[in-house]
Amino acid sequence: MTITTTAKENTLYVALEGRIDTISGPQLERELSGAIDNIDTLILNLEKIDYVSSAGIRAMLSLHKKMAAKKGSMKLQNLNNSVLSVLKMTKLDSIFCVD
Known about the structure:
Residues 1-99 form the STAS domain. There is one protein chain. With 99 residues, the protein is α/β, with parallel strands linked by helices. It has a single domain (2-98), classed as Transcription Regulator spoIIAA, CATH 3.30.750. Helices cover 35% and strands 36% of the residues. A 5-stranded mixed β-sheet has the order 1-2-3-4-5, sandwiched between helices. The radius of gyration is 12 Å and the shape is globular. The relative contact order is 0.19. The model has no long low-confidence stretch (mean pLDDT 95).
């Protein structure tokens, strides 16, 4: 998985490409955990993500929890049908803000 970040004002934009699986899920969480300390909004662009495993969902939930704990927000953008169906099946589409 490729992670590209851009910070603008109090927002961190993250473009992801590839798969979020048992290897890349923890990598995503590690790389972004420190980066979200000084932001109010985290936006994950999932346009180029074609697969999300349970480890990927765990990483996104962990980031969501960290943002909520500091009164920030996290948004998921540009989900393809397979990723969106995983979120709907697990009912996480009601937890995450999905654009």
